[in-house]
Amino acid sequence: MIYYVTLAGKEHVVDVKEIEADLYRVVVDGVEQVVDAQKSERTVFSLLVNGRSHEANVTEQPNGLDILIEGDFYNVTVIDERRRSLVRQGEMQAEGTQVITAQMPGKVVAILAEPGQRVEAGQGILVLEAMKMENEIKSPIDGEVKEIAVEVGNTVESGQRLAVVE
Amino acid sequence: MFKKILVANRGEAAVRILRACREMEIPSVAIYSDPDRSGLHVRFADEAYRVGPAPARESYLRIDTIIDIARKTGTEAIHPGYGFLSENPQFAQACADAGITFIGPSPSAIRAMGDKIEARKLMVEAGIPVVPGVTSELDDEQAVQAIKKIGLPVMVKAAAGGGGKGMRLVREESQIASALRSARSEALSSFGNAAIYIEKAIEDARHIEVQVLGDRFGNLIHVGERDCSIQRRHQKVIEECPAPGLSDEQRERIRETGARAARAVKYESAGTVEFLYDRSGEFYFLEMNTRIQVEHAITERTTGIDLVKAQIRIAAGEELWIKQSDVAIRGTAIECRIYAEDPYNNFMPSPGTITVFRVPGGPGVRLDSGVYGGFTVPLDYDPMVAKLIAHGDTRHEAIERITRALREFTIKGIRTSIPFHLRVMKHPRYIAGDISTTFVEKEFLAKGLKEERTHDDIALLAAAVAAFRRDKAKARDLAATIDRRDSSPWRFAGRQSARRRLNT
Fold it and tell me: Which residues of chain B have a CB within 8 Å of the CB of A129?
């Protein structure tokens, strides 16, 4: 089975074949390895690669796999060939207009810019409060505020549209 | 001893105090807000009652509701933990008025130290060194004047502040307006009081604090000092006991000064006197926290004294049973505060549901937390999810142990500050004990915290194998479903009963 595995923006071609139960031949970008993979706990893989023991905690997320190895996070997307061609077609992106979205759930406690106002990159657009800390949401570009999509007091969800700067 | 204790807190703090109650076999009462019905502290108490909806102002800060629950449950004493009402003199007074013991100092000591401006004056009178500053009530215009007089850099601080909230460092004139605005607004939302004052910023100083224990009979001892210099946004993230690199004389002097400061307000219960410690070894009174602190566990680990139980015994009227000469610090203990935030995304808060929570163990490790796998970290409260404490015979061993424990600690579903802690533990400056309150900003934030991954190869293998197994399991399920379509016993039984119904 061939997968396209993306880690930190870099895509790798990975071919996985099952040799026997829990034993795999894995070819990563042309380099072949034999992996003994045991699922030891609900989300933990114990991996033996050339005798070296590794532990990877793997959970599935809507946007890929969340992997934790020795305290460090690896967010990985895995797609097979069929899915990959579908994704490729949808990858065209608009430029120039910056939609600012909430990176975390929170409450809008202040709005610092209004539609029509010129802002510089790094200038505060609004202030979100989450977990008792205030975070100033800044403009990513020099431009004009086209829209403020929220009001003071609104609770916003992660990913929700906050403002548009062009 | 008290017949029943109510814990007016949540999460890790509440769990810590409830553990003390259980050890002392004192029946306990927990309170919870709506999202905290599933909180761990509810299960660690003998009784638990709803205190209100999610916002702290309508739940954990509702003095009237809490006193009401205490009365109805026959509570004899209330432990406020840290944060929330722990330094609120009105609450301590309300307890006294209701005939309930407040486990902590007297309302007058809380008031004296809680008003940071008042506290400075008291310390000056007691001969304790303080940071130069302007302390009269200031409006924005006066604040700007004060800043010009003192000279940049300055700290803008909430008069009612504490715990790093409502505090801003101002280096340049252009930052003044924004610092005043945000300090006031945070002070108002955290403490219900927007008053601020200005102090000269002592840069590159260390934060060293002295733990004290006093009783109502006038006995007061220090229980060693802690270094809490590793801070981000004036919030402590890593603490250690004892403070590294002090000479015996310096150590003795700061401990004695701390005890003297606490005696000046006739302090009883556990408390902490905080100092700024500059490069030359001079130190200045910063504030006194009239409560147990988050980082109390490292003192417990090195001295063997259970500070929470000590608070309870002192509040119950016991005379202090520990003499100053009994206090000895053995080895070094380090604490890492694990926050629900993403160190690789500007430490953005990361609330959500914890899917995996595997705790570290082994020699010298202590974990205090208020969460578990499946728990949803609420948006409404402090983002700290756990405190990891490691002890070693030497500072070097403590660093090795906490590094090992951080690597064992697995929290998923939310992002945590664990990767950041690992980076601090291997930083040459930290290892050398060359730390100050600007360490995190200089060594990490200013340079930009780039994601560091040393196991990309293993992650790729794990991802591919996990995907392969998932797809294989899916294919197998699909085949089984197709297989079952005509032979399911449920289907068969369903058809049988339908046939029976038709027949009757």
Answer: 189
Give the helix ranges, DSSP H, for B77-209: 89-97, 107-114, 116-125, 140-150, 176-191
Q: State the DSSP H helix or E strand holding residue B69, giving kind and residue range, or none if neither.
A: helix B63-73
Torsion B196-B199-B205-B208 (CA) sign: negative
| Calpha distance A149→A160 (Å, rounded) | 9
Contact B294, B360 (CB under 8 A): no
Round to whole Å and give the CA distance between B465 and B93.
62
Whether residues B472 and A131 touch (CB distance < 8 A) is answered with no
For residue B383, the chain A residues in CB contact (below 8 A) are: 131-133
The first and second tokens of residue B431, run together, are 């290892």
> How many angstroms separate the Cα of A74 from the Cα of each of A54, A154, B133?
14, 33, 47
Record: contact B409-A71, CB cut-off 8 A:
yes
Our CA angle for A153, B57, B346, nearest 5°, is 60
What amino acid is encoded at B266 in this protein? K
Are A72 and B452 a contacting pair at CB < 8 A? Answer: yes
Token look-up 């570290």 returns: B360
Of B233, B351, B415, nearest to A73 by CB-CB distance is: B415
Q: How many residues does chain A have?
A: 166
**In whole angstroms, what is the distance from residue B355 CA to residue B349 CA?**
17
Q: Flag the least confident range among A39-43, A67-71, B82-86, B416-420.
A: A39-43
Distance CA B279, CA B206 (A): 8
Tell me how far apart the alpha carbons of residues B401 and B356 are, in angstroms, rounded to a whole number.
Answer: 22
ipTM higher than threshold 0.90 = no
Alpha carbons B261 and B252: distance in angstroms, whole number: 14
pTM reported for the whole predicted model:
0.82
Q: Is residue B316 within 8 Å of residue B101, measured between CB atoms?
A: yes
Active site residue B291: yes
Backbone angles phi and psi of B127, in degrees to 5:
80, 25
- Tell me the pLDDT tens digit for each residue of B390-407: 999 999 999 999 999 999
CA distance B402 to B425: 8
- Report yes or no: B341 and B449 within 8 Å, Cβ to Cβ: no
Task: Write the Ramachandran bin of A9: left for phi over 0, alpha for psi from -120 to 50, otherwise beta.
Answer: left
